[in-house]
Amino acid sequence: MMKRNKFLLPIMAFGLLSFIACSPTENKDETTNKEMKTVDHHSYAQPEEAVITHLNWDADVDFDNKMIKATAEFDIRTVDGAEKIILDINDLDISVVEDQEGNELAYEIGEEKPFLGSPLIIQIEEGTSKIKITYSSSPEAEALQWLSPKQTSAETMPFLFTQSQAILCRSWIPVQDSPGIRFSYNAHVTVPKGMLALMSAENPQEKSETGEYDFVMKQPIPAYLMALTAGDISYQKVGSRTGVYAEPTVIKAAAWEFEEMEEMVVAAEELYGPYQWDVYDLIVLPPSFPFGGMENPRLTFATPTILAGDRSLTSLVAHELAHSWSGNLVTNANWDDFWLNEGFTVYFEQRIMEAVFGRDYSEMLAVLSMQDLEATIKDLTDNGQIADTHLRLNLEGRNPDDGMTDIAYNKGYFFLRLLEEKVGRDQFDAFLKSYFTENAFKSMTTDNFIDYLNKNLFEANNLALEPDLLDQWIFGPGLPEIHPNPVSDRFDRVDAVVSDWVNETPIGLLIPQEDLLSKKWSSHEWLHFIRQLPGEMTEAQMKELDDYLQFTYSGNSEMLTAWMIHVIKHEYEPGYQNLENFLVSAGRRKFLVPLYGEMAKTESGMAMARGIYAKARPNYHFVSVSTIDEMLNWQEENL
Ligand SMILES: [Zn+2]
């Protein structure tokens, strides 16, 4: 898609006609089909003709055959003369499609395309108000991760979880799988007795006798927020609106780690208005979950790698919670606009962390974000993917997962922070609060955001930015010259220690034993320390650090990954066994990619990477497997 000049855009009805929602369910049908016409290259849906508004889902989860057998009955809204409704499907076996009276509807499955799956084109006529699809999912469904008992921590029961973002919902539900299309849902789900089932909805807190569960999600959500998990799961309340789910063996540690959740919800509401989803719970999944967290409404899915034992990685909770506003409430209209979800969320996350832990703490996180961003820009630029360093992307013909880089997250964050620094915090906060309120339960494109920004932040406050600055940030490459500069005194002190150590002062003198014991440094300071270590170290230097600081055995997965990069680079053999243990047990793509990537740089490293991957691959989710297969040039016959 070509870059468009924001000043030539007609003022769109979007956002300007918006209503302030009294209750989320009341405004869901005020959008007309015509207003829904957005360009989404990753969905076959044509909502301007016929669009889904509510789902009634009845499903049987069959662990033996790794299948979901279900009926998906949608309420639909059509324009006069509509002849068809198009859903997205990927590898679903459709057996029958009916209308509201049980009359069979003719349908056709179109050509399958890479990443996208196929269109399911259903013939409708005047008066068709519902479509009901009976179907089953494939054992290879990309969104579904079926774990054997051995892959869980208690090893007693199998486990299932879904990951629908970006376009995988269509592999377990036939649906209009575009982030610009929202629907509410009810579900009736049957799982084996003894299991608890949970969705992105109002959830049970105890197992049922029969294995049957009913769910209601009354607020309209896009398909990528559809989520289901089932297994031996227990619940523990943390605050009045917050609680934690996990396997029984993990629940105590999880509830302790996330004790600050309620405080975070309060801090978030003070910043940007009421939490709109009633309850905020979090489930700690088994290790193969490929992401840090997924912001499924009412129930964040989280990796166990954030159970650091010292609450040092809870910024992930702030991040997923922030999505309850940015992303879940105001949603990117398509995956080219992914930065609208993630950049806002990182900005918001930082503000929650600042409110709860103080500015000197959150500035450490900001410095780490800048380091991550600079590394990503360098990687993408070196790989000739400079267009992927723009905030607004063009992912046509590509897997939308390609856009899930640090650019959307951290370049997005620093862009919003730049706006805050330019206009002042009070004005920027007032702007953001009205942005979330006025656009609640709607989708947003980059162009509409720019219009909204010009009108409500700049014109309303009689402010202007340097010419072209917006364009440079949103439509231009890399990090523009005018950018925020986070500074952290605490990191400056870490830098001084690194430099003295490089100049041969023993580490034990620089960081006395009592400082280690009293945990004077946070894990962020340690992470910064590891990242600032020189690119060339002797084996004796590696050993000196490791013997004293025990990085190889760190329970903090961020620190461990940063250290293991040095282990690989310096061929530091004492670290190898734990490198393998970590890669075999953790499935989070954020850690897998840099570690396998570092190994793949040399021939011997590549051999080691393949050896480890052969053992680890069965534990990884499709999302991780598809990335690592490519990095290691992996073919099925390697299995
Ligand atoms: Zn996010």
Précis, in short:
The chain is of the alpha+beta class and 639 residues long. Helix content is 36%, strand content 18%. Helix 15 runs parallel beside helix 17.
Can you offer a commentary on this structure?
The protein is an alpha+beta fold and 639 residues long. The chain has helices at 251-257, 261-272, 315-322, 338-357, 359-382, 406-423, 425-438, 446-461, 469-475, 489-502, 507-510, 513-517, 523-532, 539-549, 557-569, 576-585, 589-599, 603-616, 622-631, and strands spanning 50-62, 67-78, 84-89, 93-99, 107-109, 118-123, 130-136, 144-147, 159-162, 182-190, 196-199, 212-222, 228-231, 234-237, 242-246, 280-284, 293-294, 299-302, 330-332, 442-444. A six-stranded mixed sheet has the order 4-7-2-1-10-12, with no helix packed on it. The chain has a five-stranded mixed sheet with strand order 14-15-16-18-17. Strand 14 (234-237) and strand 15 (242-246) form a beta hairpin. The two termini are 40 Å apart. Mean pLDDT is 92; it is low at 1-29. Zinc ion (ZN) is lined by residues 319, 323, 342, 345.
